[in-house]
Specification:
Layout lengths: L7 E5 L3 H12 L3 E5 L3 H20 L5 H9 L1 E4 L2 H5 L4 E4 L5 H14 L5 E4 L6 H5 L8 E6 L8 E6 L5 H13 L3 E4 L7 H19 L5 H15 L4 H8 L1 H11 L11 H9 L16 H23 L1
Parallel strand pairs: 1-2, 1-4, 2-3, 4-5, 5-6, 7-8
Antiparallel strand pairs: 6-7
């Protein structure tokens, strides 16, 4: 099984991730079976997909004539039998719950053709644990699309203990054909690459805010400007360019002062207890009661990520 043999993709999920992944696959020319549990969920999935296509059209990434072509590539289905019967590749994007994912993969294992590859877009669940639900563990892999999947090019690829080299190669090749930038983990670890790095930064940022070292605004502004450099040179490249002796000296005095507690930071505990969960509830580290401000930030994020898509395509 190679990526050249893949014609039909079974896409599980119609939420933000599922709809975004379906749109990406459809725009790459694949036939997509988009599975949702109800007619309403399928309708919501299509609504999100139309919004993505409209945005791409607005930014001149596609034209209006192509929208009908891409939409025709997607078939919404409400049974796993319909989703699985001719699937060459499965991309699962349902709730982040091990048992839920295992149950779906177990059902698909009995429905999909023998050559089908199963990929989970989990952000941290072990692919080895997922593979215990199926009889073909060599054909299961994690492919973590970042949110929003139609704007973020990076996809983490995490093999399980039994994943075959052929499954890895096919997944990497397919993701490249989808216009994505796959990064392969050599072995699975909790949180994968993205969340391990993201939570390490988050832990220090939360601690600095808690200790009054810097305001949330100052911390975020620093990250936004640091990311300009990271977009050219990553952490380890940057260390090489700066000189490892310099970073040794910084580490010698600073490492012991960085926050390293294993507990969940108090500000996150308070947020959960009070229900102040961020933009979704109107209050987090910032106030999000101003809908205009929220939409402006989302639009800015979209414009910046679209600019990167255009740069990658040039």
């Amino acid at each position: 099984m190679t990526s050249q043999n893949i014609k039909t993709i079974c896409n599980l999920g119609t939420g933000t991730m599922g709809a975004g992944i379906a749109a990406v696959c459809a725009m790459a020319g694949y036939k997509v079976k988009m599975f949702g549990r109800s007619v309403d969920s399928i309708a919501n999935g299509y609504k999100a997909i139309y919004s993505i296509f409209d945005s791409y059209c607005e930014h001149h990434l596609i034209n209006s004539e192509q929208i009908a072509e891409f939409t025709a590539n997607i078939q919404g289905v409400t049974t796993l039998e319909e989703a699985a019967n001719d699937a060459d590749f499965v991309i699962e994007a349902v709730s982040e719950d091990l048992a839920v994912k295992q149950n779906i993969f177990a059902s698909l294992d009995t429905l999909c053709p023998a050559h089908t590859i199963f990929a989970s877009s989990t952000s941290g669940i072990s692919p080895t644990a997922l593979s215990t639900a199926i009889s073909r563990a060599d054909r299961l892999i994690a492919a973590h699309f970042l949110n929003p999947p139609h704007l973020m090019s990076l996809v983490e690829v995490i093999p399980g203990q039994c994943t075959s080299p052929e499954t890895i190669a096919t997944t990497l090749s397919l993701l490249s054909q989808l216009g994505k930038t796959p990064v392969l983990m050599k072995k699975e670890a909790p949180g994968f690459i993205v969340n391990r790095l993201q939570m390490a930064l988050m832990r220090e940022a939360l601690w600095m805010a808690e200790e009054g070292i810097a305001s949330p605004e100052a911390i975020d502004l620093t990250i936004k400007h640091l990311s300009r450099r990271f977009s050219a040179t990553g952490l380890l490249e940057g260390a090489d360019l700066g000189g490892l002796d310099v970073f040794y000296n910084i580490a010698d005095y600073l490492m012991k002062d960085l926050y390293s507690g294993p507990e969940i930071p108090p500000s996150l505990v308070r947020a959960k207890e009070t229900g102040n969960l961020g933009a979704k509830t109107g209050q987090g580290f910032y106030s999000w009661s101003d809908t205009k401000k929220l939409n402006e930030i989302k639009k800015l994020r979209e414009d910046i990520l679209i600019a990167w898509i255009k740069k990658d395509q040039s």
